[in-house]
What does this fold into?
Amino acid sequence: MVVNRKIAYINLSTGKITQKIVPKTLRTLYLGGRGINMYLLYNHLSPKIDPLSQNNILFVGAGLLGGIPCLGSGRCDIAAKSPLTGAVGDSNIGGFFAPELRFAGFDHLAITGKAEEPVYLLVRNGQVHIREATHLWRKDTFETQTIIREDEDDEDIKSLVIGAAGENLVRFANVRTGRKNSAGRTGLGCVMGSKNLKAIAARGTNPLEFSHPDDLLEYCRQMNDMITSTRWAKAQSRWGTMIIYSNTNTAGLIRTRNFQLNQLEKGQDLEPENIDRYSIGTSGCYGCAVHCRHRYILKSGSFAPLYGEGPEYTSLGAFGTMVDCRKMETILVANHLVNKYGLDTLETGGLIAWAMELYEKGIIDNNMTDGLKLEWGNEEVLYELIRKIAYREGFGDKLANGFREAIDKIGKGSEYYAIQIKGMSNLHSDERPTPSFALGIATSTRGADHLRSRPAIDMYGLPADLLKEIYGGPVAADYNSYDGKSRMVWWQELLYAVTDSLGICKFQTVFCAVHAPQWKEFSRLIQLATDFKFSKDQLMQIGERIYTTERLFNLREGFSRKDDDLPKRYFKEPTPIGLPVARNKVIDREKFSEMLDEYYKLHGWDSMGVPTTKTLKKLALTKKPTNLL
Amino acid sequence: MLAIDPEKCTGCRLCETACSIHHEKTCSPERARIRVTKWENEGIYIPMVCQQCDIPICETVCPMQALRRDTKTGALIIDYKLCVGCKLCMQFCPFGGIGVNEETSKIIKCDLCSGDPVCVKFCKPEALQYLQVIALNLKKRKAAAEKFSKYLKQMLTAL
It folds into this structure.
């Protein structure tokens, strides 16, 4: 299966399409998915290009283990230079697209240039076709997928699509597939829009061959047992990622009213159990035994009848706590709207919450907001602003280029209130009580983001000797502590880099569950599927290579240690409420800086965050951009 | 029998993948004996597979009498020594329970994995279960009775 999947280079300006086998050497260095995408991003992009120019390349990659029957192996990685941040643009999407791409004979697509008129790509059984898509333009993300299936007369087609936001070049437009799945972050839908690329459709009937099919099947069964036996997966199967809200809001770890409070009082309606009022059951991505999202129906209200999937914990924050909306129904509607328009839920909610705080503080007023009263908890304003952002109308247009440009346009000290790093909004989590989380969002290569490193098991207060065993060095059990937390972040960064390269779901490795599959199990799965043999140390080194490649890309674009920082409020404003462990906490500037030093050292980077020559040599990264592919 | 409860199906297609690896040694939903039919925009997922009918149309129409019943499991099994690949069984089956491997032209259908179906082992939400017919009936009866009991309780509390 490894040796026969290809990469297709597609130039939308010229219509030229070439195909190559993905070489084995690249597999042993970067596996697949995110790993190979990061190799391509660093080596194929010219430095300092305009992300919306024809020179930006959109990379789509299936994971090395994509298609195996366990651990949600249908993940797809999408990358480009981010039009939101100018740093690494990278986002991971579940659903059913990646396996279909593999069935069609491809593991990777590299799309460059710009089509004159709207087009979509159809990847089918060894061929890539460029199809006219004028009739799909202005269709929402759901309609687009349906029409492509009708056009091609094939219900089994899986598509990655953009909606209004991507067409209108909203810098945080996402890429979507199915009813719910999104490659949410870093604005890759905007890159598709800039290329006049409405969709990428895949369909194939080429079987995936494995080296040891019978043993693989049995081991996959064990993997599904292993993950579903964890308490985390059990809870997730029932309530989805919303289950996190129960713990974090009780403790006081949730940004509320942008960043004014760390707990939503009277937020009972957002408790995950309340999804049962709307749910008809759960839904899973390809190869997933956990099935973490709900299929929900809204039968009343101005948006009814409405069928949607989700919502994620992130949307509970983005359209709940951060904007002080306290009704589950509001979350379900807003979740549906961003999905329909193809907007990143986190960036959208983060920007709106920020604007509401600016409105409250009098920094912006009705003249700026087209007469919209940006008051906390006003769901009608929330829905209207989501639409305005997607269509770049009035005040929506001011927000549509993300924090950096909005701060420039608004001025008046608005920057202080923006909870963003490297130009990207943070999750609604409040990291002031948890230094490990704080370090992770600061160092993430794609801007404020929890999915690059979140050491969620820090919350469990596990015994120090167990933590030492997992992380290979001393880590304090107390989540308020700074001790050893750099090690946690570093280790999780490597693990997630490899997970994303295998095409496996992060929730099915050491994310919230200690006893979930990790290095040893990955090693065995790779061997059974492909005959590649990697030890734990070798896999960790691949993770290091991927993360360091991302670092090199960002350094080349002008990012440095100064950008691995937190918004000022983290150091100045103590958390006002919550349980004693979460109350009255700020991040200590000096200790944070020490953590960062330790973190760089663990990666083998110098005190400015630049990989040392020794590290580059160890990771086989000494050569300037190479062309293995 | 292989009992299907569509209400529990999450649409993950582990059954398809596991089935094709088990039978064909490759991952290929096209070659799986079980397929999940989806209405994605409505959130409806229904696994479809051979029902191992008591009066099997496939057996009736087979000109070669290549289908026979496994007395142990009750599954209808294709005898490939007799099968000529005419696909009449496929055309007449009312459930789409019979498929064809396009590469080899071999007719494929569920054989209940000799009484230990692989798909069931991979179905964590238990939308697929391998049960005795009587046990299935009992389960259904109990589930229906539970619904009635809820209404009864509501009525009683309303009084």
Q: What stands out?
A: DSSP finds 23 helices and 18 strands in chain A.
